[in-house]
Design a protein that fits this description.
α1 (about 30-40) packs across α2 and α1 (about 30-40) runs parallel beside α8. With about 270 residues, the chain is of the alpha/beta class. The protein has one domain: Aldolase class I (TIM Barrel). About 35% of the residues lie in helices and about 20% in strands. It has an 8-stranded parallel beta barrel, surrounded by 7 helices. Strands 3-4 form a two-stranded antiparallel ribbon. Strands 7-8 form a two-stranded antiparallel sheet.
């Protein structure tokens, strides 16, 4: 509870559609506006997927560059965390392409899993290669954990020297094929962590709010956004990404936990400037 709360906003994702959520930002300009609003609401990290103008998920380097430039023009201090997960089924060489831009952070998925009706493929050799690319580029990895076996893999990679301290893990709970967002799953995963590891949680769909509230109290960090959840209340669409961020920031204020600034988030995560 003493450590400032890092709020990450996953503004777009690769699966949510404009048809299901009209407020979804798609173009670089829309993403920049959404990022600025989220930062004003309390976010210090923007988790970034990009889309083509027609809404298709994209891993084009030029598109990432356009969105990053547009976001930084509006909120220069924000930490941009690019996704190397892409859309399910995207070859890992395409998923790795945006690392050429040397962002401050990137997501690193450490295991293969069923993902709804698809398979999210992350071969151990490719995970190690991707981790090395991040290290060589000075990019801080966020380790995406969908079930307990992936956390054990993180420990193995740390022992091998593939991953460097301080580790930053993100529990992504509620994806069909991974662990659900049952609170007992979060408590189990947190109980497995040795001291010195920073952790956060991204609850998918209806799990977003309850897991966020518990993470605030337990001393973890939180990811929210339209990538993970399109609703504010059951059956009520969120008006924006910022609305989801602001709700968690208000809760943190009520329990006396400060929300991290971008500079504080960099210090906590050990991001190399």
């Amino acid at each position: 509870m003493n450590e400032p709360l890092i709020l990450t906003c996953a503004i777009t994702g690769a699966e949510t559609t404009r048809e299901r959520q009209p407020a979804l930002p798609i173009t670089p300009v829309e993403q920049a506006i959404a990022a600025e609003e989220a930062v004003r609401a309390g976010a210090s990290v923007i988790h970034l997927h990009v889309r083509e103008d027609d809404g298709r998920p994209s891993q084009r380097l030029e598109r990432f560059e356009e969105s990053i430039r547009a976001i930084k023009a509006r909120v220069p201090d924000v930490i941009i965390q690019i996704s190397t997960g892409g859309a399910v089924g995207e070859p890992i060489e395409n998923r790795a392409r945006p690392l050429q831009l040397k962002p401050e952070m990137a997501s690193l998925n450490v295991g293969t899993m069923n993902f709804g009706d698809d398979v999210f493929w992350n071969h151990p050799k490719e995970v190690r290669a991707l981790a090395k690319k991040m290290s060589d580029a000075g990019v801080k990895p966020e380790l995406e954990i969908y079930e307990a076996g992936m956390l054990e893999q993180v420990f193995r990679l740390k022992k091998e020297g593939v991953l460097e301290d301080p580790l930053n893990v993100q529990f992504v709970l509620g994806v069909p094929g991974g662990m659900s967002g049952d609170l007992r799953n979060l408590m189990h995963l947190v109980s497995l962590l040795p001291s010195g590891i920073h952790w956060g949680v991204a609850g998918i769909g209806r799990y977003q709010l309850p897991l966020a509230l518990h993470a605030v109290i337990l001393g973890g960090h939180v990811r929210v956004g339209l990538e993970d959840n399109i609703f504010y209340h059951k059956g009520v669409l969120a008006k924006s990404n910022a609305e989801l961020v602001a709700r968690v920031a208000r809760v943190a204020g009520e329990v006396g936990r400060p929300v991290a600034s971008c500079a504080e988030a960099r210090a906590i995560l050990g991001i190399r400037n």
